[in-house]
Design brief:
There is one protein chain. Helices cover about 40% and strands about 20% of the residues. It is built from 15 helices and 15 strands. A hairpin with a 5-residue loop joins strand 9 and strand 10. It is elongated, with a radius of gyration of 29 Å. The chain has 3 domains: about 200 residues, Immunoglobulin-like (Sandwich), CATH 2.60.40; about 120 residues, no CATH class; about 130 residues, Glutaredoxin. By secondary structure, the chain is an alpha+beta fold. Strands 13-12-11-14-15 form a 5-stranded mixed sheet, with helices on one face. The two termini are about 50 Å apart.
């Protein structure tokens, strides 16, 4: 189908094609946890969807729905295709959403709307032009779904033709206005349908003319605030059918990553506001899972606190059902992360230097202390060592010190690393006691793992790539100077 999402591209068709082209679908379809087949029955209750695709014969097709995004698919049923291209999907029940009839080889598909209210209908087309030649019987949802696509395709084709011959043709602007008028009118005229709800959900908020600043320029802050405050106007957070469409993950990504300040307080506040809008169990679970998954191992510095908040309140708090093993693993993860969040004081870490003299990381006097956990045999750690030394040489006169800590208990490999990587100018630490579990106490799941501490040994950043140390330090010093 076609969407007016910015560039007016064929949204569903384009995105499915991209997923298949990138070889994501075969993996998804073969992943056993994602394939859920509904039982079939021969009685009159339940659903019965007849699909005829001329050009297809003597094979089988899969019926399934999108799962939050365009690249995630859950299979629900299969049907045999006869010599005339006819197949019938029958079963006890289907959850509402946007469905695909996936043809053999994953190269082609037919889309359909299953609203949950229309349980018996038929679709007929051919494999040459599934959308353009589609005929629907017994379903207002799918009748509108395909009429909308066919009309929009014709209008957009005309715009494309004119743009190629004369991009300045005034008829183009008129046609674009006609497209927008048709879109609004068509959706409003079918407002009782789930298809209309879905089509509205695709659209970005329409922004009215912005007020002018004293200098005559448009107030961009007003524009941003209006866009953000109206971003979710056309999303019904209590309709779980929208979870089974290709749009929700992308909508969340755009909102969370582009419209929210990547700071734990801001993110937690926005997450709670979104969750509070839904009383639907499945929709709430999607929102909770999104924020928890996005910020367990985030790209934005210091935002692991979002994961800890979501895990404590909703997973361990009981709203999300967990197995005993799942609860234990989440509790263990929180136990590791919570003392290591940005703003917390770095835990005591007693070590020894190469001369076997004891010291504690928190006793090292420095305006900024970089803690570099590494494995002496790790290739990436060896690549990072010269960059770490370069950083130290540039910033040591500004009160910066570096502690490099071997996370594996091989004294021989540790001293070999110091010698070969020439790390003697920085502080080198080793656990001669062999009692420190760096994985569980300092979240050293991969190496190198880097922390930046302030003069009071509070964590300023964690999991920081060595290449970004200089930029982060400069940013933090400028920020501190403004306070």
């Amino acid at each position: 189908m076609l969407s007016l999402y910015k560039a007016n591209v064929p949204f569903l068709i384009h995105t499915i094609h991209s997923s298949i082209k990138n070889s994501k679908w075969p993996a998804i379809l073969s992943f056993v946890l994602c394939i859920i087949y509904a039982p079939t029955v021969n009685g009159q209750s339940g659903y019965e969807i007849e699909v005829t695709l001329k050009g297809l014969r003597d094979t089988s097709c899969v019926l399934g729905h999108y799962n939050y995004s365009r690249s995630s698919f859950i299979a629900r049923d299969t049907a045999q295709v006869d010599a005339q291209g006819k197949m019938v999907f029958r079963g006890e029940s289907l959850p509402g959403g946007i469905y695909l009839v996936l043809l053999p080889g994953n190269a082609k598909w037919a889309e359909l709307v299953y609203s949950g209210t229309e349980t018996r209908f038929s679709l007929e087309s051919d494999t040459v032009d599934i959308v353009g030649n589609m005929v629907v019987k017994g379903s207002k949802e799918n009748q509108f779904f395909y009429e909308y696509q066919q009309t929009m395709a014709a209008k957009m084709e005309e715009i494309s033709r004119l743009s190629q011959t004369n991009p300045q043709d005034p008829q183009i602007a008129k046609l674009r206005k006609d497209v927008e008028t048709y879109r609004k009118t068509a959706i409003e005229s079918n407002s009782d349908l789930f298809t209309s709800k879905f089509l509205k959900a695709i659209q970005a908020p329409e922004i009215p003319p912005a007020p002018k600043l004293p200098n005559g320029k448009e107030d961009s802050v007003w524009v941003f605030n209006y866009y953000k405050s109206h971003y979710w106007d056309d999303i019904d957070f209590n309709d779980d059918r929208l979870l089974r469409t290709p749009i929700l993950q992308n909508k969340m990504d755009q909102y969370v990553k582009n419209l929210i300040v990547q700071h734990p307080d801001s993110l937690i506040k926005e997450a709670e506001a979104l969750i509070a809008r839904s009383q639907n169990k499945d929709f709430r679970y999607f929102l909770i899972r999104y924020f928890a998954a996005e910020y367990e191992n985030p790209k934005a510095v210091g935002t692991e606190a979002v994961f800890v908040h979501m895990a404590e309140k909703y997973y361990l708090g009981g709203e999300i059902a967990l197995s005993e093993d799942g609860r234990r693993r989440i509790a263990e993860r929180i136990t590791v992360l919570k003392p290591l969040l940005v703003g917390k004081k770095f835990p005591d870490l007693p070590l020894w230097n190469p001369e076997k003299q004891p010291f504690n990381v928190n006793d090292v006097k420095a305006d900024y202390l970089v803690v570099f956990f590494y494995s002496p045999t790790c290739g990436h750690c060896k690549e990072s060592a010269p960059k770490l030394l370069d950083f130290y040489e540039k910033f040591k006169m500004e009160g910066v010190k570096v502690v490099a800590i071997a996370s594996e208990n091989s004294e021989e490999e540790w001293k070999k690393f110091i010698s070969e990587q020439k790390t003697s100018p920085i502080i080198n630490g080793f656990d001669y006691s062999g009692q420190i579990d760096f994985r569980s106490r300092f979240d050293v799941l991969t190496t190198p793992t880097v922390y930046i501490l302030d003069k009071d040994k509070k964590i300023l950043a964690r999991k920081m790539p060595v290449e970004q140390l200089g930029d982060f330090l400069n940013f933090h010093k400028r920020k501190f100077a403004r306070q």
